[in-house]
Every structure is written in C-alpha cells, then in structure tokens.
User: What shape does this take?
Amino acid sequence: MKAVTVKEIKTELSHYSQKELVELCLRLSKFKKENKELLTYLLFESSNEEGYISSIKLEIDTQFELINTKTYYFIKKSVRKILRMVKTTIRYSKNKETEVELLLYFCIKLKDFKPSINNNNVLKNLFIREIESIKKKILLLHEDLQYDYELEIEKIKGKE
Assistant: This one.
C-alpha cells in the first residue's frame, strides 16, 4: 500500500465528525510508540514547554547515569542512543529554542562525562558535529537568545 500525501489526508479528515477523528487518533496511537509519544506531547506537554524541557533533561540525566563505562564501545552505543532519543523528542516540539536548549544540555552532559570523550575520536567528533549543528540552529533565533546561547557554547568549549 502506498501512502497518500499530507494534503490528501487533510482533505479526507475534513469530512469526518469529531467522534470519528477521536477514534482515528486512538487507533493511530496503538500502532507505534512514536505516535503515542507525539499525541502525549500535543495533548499534555505542549502547553508547558518549560516542563517538557525539564522532563527531557531528567531523562537525559538518567540515561547518562546508566551508561556502561567498561569500554568505549558501550559508551558510544549509549551516547548515540541518548542522542537519538533527544532528537526524537525535539521533533515533537517544533520550537527551535527547545531544540537548541536540549542539544546544548546533551553536549554539556557529554563534555562532563567520565571517562573523558577526548580519549575517543568517535565521541569527540560527535560532540563537535552537535556543537556545529547547534551553531547553525542558533542563527534562526532572536538576537538576544543568539547571544545567550553563544555564551553557553563558549562555556562548553572552554572546558576543553
């Protein structure tokens, strides 16, 4: 089965009643974890962006504490998993400030992680790529926020 375009879906949904739309949403939420997470964000978290950011930061903290530090192989796997989770949660909120805030927090946690990421090229390059990505995203924000986030990046880089 080939998926139709978003425009076609939007047109078709306009023909449904409210009750039928609720049923469709509930059915959609049963199929994929990401669908359920997106609906959770839209219904419960989107009105309180600060609370959403805080909950994701707590999840990042928890995930960093659970990393197996025996070898860099396990560290790399875990860090990639955390970054994937962060980027997935960022997609739910289309807010650029939230994106920059969460990626900066991830980079801070990665930089402070022991054993040091400087001993591993893959982790060091991942950190550098994320910092460069953040810099590009900062350019899309308001000037005051740009300045604040630039200071944060300099602080993170200063820890090297």
